[in-house]
Task: structure prediction
Amino acid sequence: MIKTLLFDLDGTLLDLDENEFVRAYTQRLAMHMEPRFAPERFGRALMSGVHAMTQNLDAARSLKTVFGERFYAELGTSEAEQDAELRRFYSQSFPALRTHSRPLPLARTVMQWAQQAGLEVAIATNPLFPHTAVSQRLEWAGVGEAEFSYRLVTSYECAHFAKPTAEYWAEVLAVLGRRPAEVMVIGNDYALDIAPALQLGATAYWVAPPGQLLPQGGLAPAGQGSLADFFVWVREAGRLDAVVPEKLDPPALLPCLRATPAALQAALCVLPEAQWSERGDPQEWSPLEILCHLRDTEIEVVLPQQAQVLAEQNPFIVRGDTNQWVVDRAYNASDPVETMLVYMAARQAMVARLQALPAAEWQRPARHTVFGPTRLCELAAIAVEHDRAHVAQARATVNAILARHGGVSELADERDLGSRG
Result:
């Protein structure tokens, strides 16, 4: 059943020629930063930083960090030196780019219907811009954040992956705590929006002329047409109740496994490390206990189980009681930074092992004390589900701790949380 609608922005909710807009944006920003930097040099550094974001698969670094490392280095400056001027650009000059866009009247109607229908809505735009640039474009589209309560608006502050990677969409799912079968992606770009969504097993609607042909080898979306066509189509009986089968192949599972550390880090980074050992509820684990549990489960359960399945023929896998580790191992005395680094390294090792396997190896059988007869691909899917549960637990715990301390983090604002609620 569909619970969440993930809308692309440019070309989907806002009529905008992306190539024309990017040219105008680059020229205006370069002119704004002159004479600090020659426009040609500035433009090259800007495009180099954008390219670095599109190539990033490092869950430990936000796209803002990735961009800054390349962009400021090529200009021979630092974020601290340029931050005030860039903020001035987005508040004073960026609004003039509105003339390169046109609102789609039906966008407001669709958003009003979705919220009245009780659907969760997220804006899944390519996160290559700071939040203010995304927020302003939502205003241009007539669907601003002041009026509509979006669960998530992706931007380079909170995202770790960019389109067209499936990891971008997997991170969105992890942040929202949704399975692919629970979301519908609505976008106008087949390569950026539709193909990776279908790869993960999500439902997708392609905002494109009904007669437009699929790319060669492309999977068919659930629907295709204009935004007006979508509004008619989505309200037809049963559209949101369709049962979507879970995908258990490597292209669907590997992006989710890569994205979990990014979503977990986004949930925890807004909390000062001194508060990671607090509990939102006396009966719940602290953020640090959740992180330690994930680290030790990865190292002592998931990796050994996978090795056993690959080394033995139909092995018998015994599941131990990992919950007791929270008490026995005094998790709250652990170092938060070191724990995160060890967890991320273990996850990278697991993904590297699975990625190197031939497709047939994913079907290797095993017998599990809890799940019964199973296969390696199913064990990977169980790991994804385990991740999803604990990322949601971590986010709820962080929100409870923040509420107890006044509801506002000294480290980040709402957009850096990556998600509301």
Observations:
- Confidence is low (pLDDT under 50) at residues 409-421.
- Residues 72 and 103 are 34 Å apart (CA to CA).
- Residues 1-247 form a domain with the Rossmann fold fold (CATH 3.40.50.1000).
- The first strand starts at residue 4 and ends at 7.
